[in-house]
Amino acid sequence: MEKKSENIILFSLVIFAVYCSLILGMSWDEPFHYLEGKNRLKYLFSFGGRELDDWELRSHYRYYSGFYDTLSAFISQIVTIKYEVHIHHLINLFFSLLTI
How far apart are CA 95 and CA 61, in angstroms? Predict the structure, then answer.
């Protein structure tokens, strides 16, 4: 019986986490990460043919990998822009649950 109650609690917490990630609004720094992910995705899809002028002007690109932003920009291309924030939050929740 103990194992069953543990599973029920775990399932309830995961459902609550999904609910919270869907009702949560956009934070103050999310538009920056969306833009950076889309820029990196455009660069990757151009196979390096895109001009790097705007990339070289920003010195933080050297220290900021942006893999997560690029991956979530790629996944968010599947859905409409109306649900972009929800998709990014669900992707973040998925990676958070994977680490646990």
Answer: 23
pTM of the entire predicted model: 0.73
Residue 73 CA to residue 58 CA, distance in Å, equals 20
Q: 67-76 vs 84-99: helix axis angle to the nearest 10?
A: 130
Burial class (CB in 10 A: 0-12, 13-18, 19+), 73: buried
**DSSP state, 23?**
H
Q: Give tens-digit pLDDT for 53-64.
A: 555 546 566 667
| HSE (side-chain half, CA atoms, 13 Å) at 29 | 2
